[in-house]
## 1
Amino acid sequence: MTVRTICCIGAGYVGGPTMAVMADRCPHIQVTLVDLNAERIAAWNDADLSKLPVYEPGLADVVARCRGRNLHFTTEVDGAIAAADMVFLSVNTPTKRRGLGAGQASDLRWIEASARQVAAQAMGHTIVVEKSTLPVRTAETIQSILSASQDSSEAESKTFSVLSNPEFLAEGTAISDLEDPDRVLIGGDDANAIDALVEIYSRWVSPERILRTNLWSSELSKLTANAFLAQRISSINAIGALCEATGADVKEVARAIGADSRLGPKFLSAGPGFGGSCFRKDILNLVYLCRHYGLEQAAHYWEQVVDLNSWQQQRIARLVVSRLFGTVSGKRLAVLGFAFKADTNDTRESPAIGICRDLLEEGAHLAIHDPKVGPDQVAADLGREAAASRLGLADEGSWQSAAGVLDAVEGADAVIVLTEWHQFAELDWTAIVARMRRPAWLFDVRGVTDAEAARAAGLRVWLVGEG
Ligand code: NAD
Ligand code: UGA
């Protein structure tokens, strides 16, 4: 079967970039991204490419090449499904907030709704591809929903194959991850359907990087990859805290252990703990699955990765308060970086949210600057509006948005670096310190700044993982 038309349900951080690259590499395939969110679709269609709903280096160029040619964005879900040979499900799968498994299990309502819509609207043979990250055996649920639609007499000619094709892109490097993936994973039991998807990826991915597995291995591999990555971050943050206490330096330790080819150098940067929409939810999902299958020790093991991460985030705010003479009430603190990592406008589960909230709770006045996150997003994440002007010795904390670093540091007692934007590696500390109140502090929670230059300029410096 050769695929000529693709529909992707969910035009978010995964659906958007993934389909843009697929359309770019497969000009013979018409790719339509659909979403219920009309505002998001309008932003994908905006003539001004700086207004795309997802910021990713290189994404605007790819969209510019394909949009209107073989890449389309629409809210007309039914028509796009009906016309598609292959439908990707790339909808959100957050942690359940209520009911059975609340706080751990995945909320599959969007997956189920989109599977039902595919069941109702598809025509002929349709390959349905799970792109969202899902609990093991979700394909079974999708299969049952699709088969139920096959039972009805008017839909005799309607048939489906379900594949799992989890996405491993990281935000900030999505385009290069998609264009040059370490591997593409395809799980399924219909060889023809797998071949059809392999044929698409083969346009730009070499065959040895396209892995075929059964459905359940594919679903579980995605959760496992995220759990292992997150585990490395919790491990290095645990060691970073020990470095701070003992005089070791976490960067030196990371370099030393990363030189071991069995460990490798990546994912060993200490920081404020992992953020992003997926690590926490995917590990909690794994914990839930382990418990569901009666594997309490395995559940407990993975739970610790999340617990350590929460501890790391909480300890940063406490540490700032303690260095600033035990109180930040009424003090201006410049927060540099709000996104959960560099090169993205995404703030979901950003460590900055919890750290800023804790500092606000202590009465601080925060001046927040991020190159890609605007004040509306910060207000939504912090659950409070920006202050009209700087408050004095207020009991309650407040925050304002700062257009640039120099605005943020004006009159501040401390600079707190929470995202590793490359701009923060090149700051002019002499100019910064001249605007701050003394004694002035730098808390570099990402280890990204030129700490020596900051010290030379007269700042007191706390660096994550540095003893
Ligand atoms: P997202 O919230 O950015 O996008 C999901 C989109 O799906 C939303 O725009 C929503 O409006 C839309 N949607 C939901 N139900 C719909 C329906 N029935 N019909 C049409 N549209 C619908 O989420 P995301 O970050 O793109 O993540 C999607 C999935 O990919 C999740 O399962 C996530 O775990 C996984 N994933 C995410 C990343 C990442 O870096 N963000 C990486 C790999 C995998
Ligand atoms: C992560 C995985 O890397 C992707 O493979 C996966 O597809 C994706 O989750 C997903 O399933 O959503 P992402 O969350 O976008 O990607 O970004 P990462 O680069 O993994 O960073 C996650 C968090 O860990 C960020 O807050 C980052 O700052 C932090 N991190 C990362 C560290 O603190 N130290 C490191 O060494 C690396």
Note: The mean pLDDT is 96.
## 2
Amino acid sequence: MRERVLVLDFGGQYNMLIARRVRENHVYAEIRAWNRITADQIAAAGYKGVILTGGPNSVYDPASPHFDAALLNLGVPILGICYGHQLMAWMAGGEIASAGSVSEYGKIGLTVSDSPLFAGVPAGSVCWMSHTDYVKTPPPGFSVIASTALCPCAAMADEGRRLYGVQFHPEVTHTQYGRQILHNFLFAICGCAGDWTMEDFAASTVERLRGELEGKRALCALSGGVDSAVAAALLHKAVGDRLVCVFVDHGLLRKGEADEVERVFRGQLGMRLIRVDAEERFLARLAGVAEPERKRRIIGEEFIRIFEEEAKKLGQIDVLVQGTIYPDVVESGSGEAALIKSHHNVGGLPERMDFERVVEPLRELFKDEVRAVGLTLGLPETLVYRQPFPGPGLAVRVLGEVTKEKLDTLREADAVFREEIEKAGLSDRPSQYFAVLTDERSVGVKGDMRSYGRTVALRAVTTDDFMTADWTRLPYEVLAAASGRITNELRNVSRVVYDISSKPPATVEWE
Ligand code: XMP
């Protein structure tokens, strides 16, 4: 059986990050909400270790999440983090108190003592704290193994039972030796082997699907994005020509993108690909529509319609393949239920179609893992490291009504901007960068003639998670080169501006 560690979710904001940190060590981590699994099920599942996450509650609040104390006697090593640390102390009979005005937040000096959990961690370092409650008296059998100026029990251990708790957050990078501490827990304490690799994942998934889908026909909608591409490539290895991919080119992609999809999937990987050139249909439906949400809805609906038409032409199809990934499956911090969100690769897929089953081969993977699988399957880096791109495509980057002329102008301006950034070989590449075609015209002068051309906005952002983002301080030379080329090469553009808004309050996209 595959080696696994359980991340028992008590609603903390870092639960997903904890799982990622575990997986960085080549140990498979699975997130489960605290009320969706019992101690018996944990025992039966054979986890190598359990990590109790943080959470916003206080253990004294009867409504806060608690857990069956039998968990501590299963013989499975446990690491409690923040709320998980307090909960473990509570379950084992320790005393928790509110720190009130002396609560800790931010980078705090940490003193550790001798423990396998802290092997390789110097006596003094910095950790990330964010708490009000703290463990005042560790439970019987536990000893204090770390402290800060304000927190007498920053970490505790019952070494005999392999139970550990830390008040700070080892999963965030502000904790200087956080990675080392998690590494120690996984290897020295849980005895993990660390053999979870993307090559193995790809090979075993292909093997499994080959068995499960014998003789079945599968259909996959490609969007040009990495998730559906990797899902399709996996399925293709498993069922070969019994997989058909449908790629709806809505005419809202970036320059050269649709041809690239065709070249890679049909040309390079030899897959059965149906490319539907539907630009005219989409443009006809978008004519006269300026409102962003209406544009999104129309594109979603039209996509579904075309996809259904194509599926019908193919006759009996048994399996629908989707590129759902782990963050789509796990509702972060839910504490209530591991809700399953519907996944929208392009604009959503038909809700009621006549399939025997839906296959989601990437359900267990984080984005960086999906990319690694893509590379092992031979997908090109341009596709694997593609920037995020909205499903409704350039329709939300052409402000106001979408027309062919505006799209073509935007495509060219966007291609120039991307080329200039790539050419500059920046050490810190922005996370996402693109051009927007505003609905403004402005006066300019071109070849001694007055011009009244369009205004292009350039946008580049730096972010880890796209929830917040800062505008990228691009070198002036790069902006100058892009602006010069765009106004020179595009007859109908007379002005280029750079967007210096962060998110929040702005969003990454303009619409
Ligand atoms: P915002 O504009 O909300 O964008 O700050 C955050 C990230 O999401 C992408 N985005 C979308 N992706 N469908 C998508 O699949 C959409 O409708 C959509 N809108 C924005 C955006 O490019 C950025 O990476």
Note: The first helix runs from residue 15 to 24.
## 3
Amino acid sequence: MNSVTLPGGEKVPALGLGTWRMGERKRARADEVAAVRLAIDLGIRLIDTAEMYGDGGAEEVVAEATEGRREDLFIVSKVLPGNSSRAGTISACERSLARLRTDRIDLYLLHWRGTVPLAETVDAFERLQRDGKIRHWGVSNFDAADMAELWKGAGRACAANQVYYSASRRGVEFDLLPWQRDHDVPTMAYCPLDQGQLASDATLAEIGARHGASAAQVAIAWLLAQSGVIAIPKAVRPEHVRELVGAGRLRLDDADLAQVDRRFPPPKRAQPLAIV
Ligand code: NDP
């Protein structure tokens, strides 16, 4: 499986599993735990979650699914902007650690930018790092101007920026991705299937047919072909989980990439960041 190098040199897998909308309903819990377990059984090592998802419920799903197998996993979670003051970030992290039933979060992100000064949140991240409660920190939903501002302050240890990025939502390619590549900050691509829609795209299906793959697999393989990008698709249905993991083995060729460009042309000008 492809990997992406974090600023400190650590390699992380370029394909992980998202958990948004998990942990919201008791009735769905067993299927969600089974989905995360299946993904791990099939080789997934990076799991993305957040205190926001299911009001902590998704972190509990992750805890249940990863029990006894924490060691070789890379767990990402996020603090809500409303909790991101110096003291608030530390308490939010401790609540997440308790729900995740672990002693450390591998990558802890500010979910999106709020009104708390960035320096305060970064200060709390550094304290959590010194205390061994998080290993790396980063941000999410930051555009190129936000990243530049972070860099001017104390933000140079930022290990990743998680943004909306898929074959059909390519705005970040204009300015944000080049900035992040220049500064060695990996991009985590959320909604890599455009919230499931790309699974029924006819052009991606046509490309997939040449490789014995599905449209969803082409959408993921396309992201994995972009340097410095980590894709975190979410799936609960077992057949979806299997397909997504299989996408890690699919290699698109130049003709495939050119066909994606014709279907979804790269941006010609700066665009506001896509958000969900
Ligand atoms: P995705 O683009 O990953 O799409 C998920 C949807 O696609 C689900 O409905 C899933 O169905 C479906 N799906 C998965 N695999 C297949 C397949 N092979 N064929 C057909 N359909 C499929 O959207 P998400 O919004 O979940 O984004 C991924 C992750 O990114 C989130 O889970 C979360 O971890 C993160 N995220 C971060 C945000 C942020 O602000 N930082 C914002 C949004 C997401 P099913 O579940 O039924 O199997």
Note: The chain has a mean pLDDT of 97.
## 4
Amino acid sequence: MNERFVELKDRLAEIHDLRRAQEVLFWDQTVMMPPGGGPVRGAQLTTLDRIAHERFIAPAIGKLLDELGSFEDGLDYDSDDASLIRTTRRDWDKARRVPADLAAEMVGAGAEAHDVWAKAREENDFATFLPHLERALDLKRRYIECFDGYDEPYDILLDDYEPGMKTAEVRTVFDELKTALVPLIAEVASSDEDDGFMKGPFPIDAQHETSLRVIERFGYDPQFFRLDLTVHPFAASSGTQDIRLTTRYTDHDLTSIFTAMHECGHGLYEHGVSQSLERTPLCHGVSSALHESQSRMWENIVGRSRPFWNYFYPQVQAAFPEALGDVEQERFYRAINRVKPSYIRVDADEATYNLHIILRFELEQELIAGTIALKDLPEAWNARFEEYLGIPLPSDTVGVLQDVHWSGGGFGYFPTYTLGNIISVQIWEKVLSEIPTLPAQFEAGEFGELHEWLRSNLYTLGRKFTPQETLERVVGSGIDAKPYIGYLREKLGALAAA
Ligand code: ZN
């Protein structure tokens, strides 16, 4: 074995350990820690982050990467070792361009803005949040200036979540989706007068048991997974064998079952990364959109399908006799798939959700380009919202102030949610063409063959290839909105016609 390669791997393993420790400390902070621990925990996380960053951008890593050029040339492109060198070179080139003081200022500004945003949202007061948003945007512009060789500035922001993806490509795919979705939603949207039973009561113990019963069928294994409570659900992990899912319960809705399926999708991806990549920077899902494609696959394509509910509905009905005892399955199925424009992105149905995202993607580009002024943002938001979703907004609380992302400088993240939806159906069609019996398997409560296909074709690759290369390997083509549009037309058209 090449000595320099061994040294690079050792260094990267230590840095990866620090990163994973951060992830577990963050999980602990949001799931276990008493609130008083906040300030000290913040300092601990910052320390770990700083040490990991300094170790990674160290010139020694760059020197090793240079020296390993000819070693890399002799390796198979697909091998773990070549992929490690190639991906690390890209990560390193990117990480060292951002000065430490700018990185620290972005973290600090985000921490300060968070509470201001939360209060502004509560009080419907965009004006108090405005200076923080101005600062966040200004820092992002300075961040973009650290890079060169891009087609448009937004590419740099997108690249943090979707490496290699270009804004122009997303715009093309989203325009196609928007053109199809706006009229489709107007056509299939319906009222919810029939859905009173969806307000419960749904006893929380039964929700927890039901969530576990569902995700255990998907591949959740208590030997490697946990499911705990938090305020904003997420999935974290310290490696492929330690997956932490989080969820939340309220007794007046059943969203927890879909949340559990969603986070389980993220967890199965991390759990399925090849163990040969453990303790390397390749030991993660490849990008935000590919990750989201898996959470949406399990939550929506599987979890909102008829075959799934043919198996699970009798159990769910038995678990919640008071709310669902005399609700027939078809009414329940229609309620969980109802398309109805609403104000809040995270509560939106499968179809309208994408218009919430496209709206944000468009406004983010205009903000970065400076073609709309920040003070005019609420007005621009409201006008576009009404244009796309057909309903006016009553306040900024349920409009421009609803999401946490911008307070933390998270520009460029939103599009990955809808890219994930689009990719989920591309992958689903590929699996289904190879295993046409999947729906029949779901009806029998069997999800193992789908899980195994995803594991061996996608999850196992980790970050060995770029997101584009990964998608190409899994489905044989690049990103394409058509399968997703077809899926929504077919599913929602059938519901509207019935
Ligand atoms: Zn997700």
Note: The pocket of zinc ion is lined by residues 262, 266, 292, 295 (CB under 6 Å).
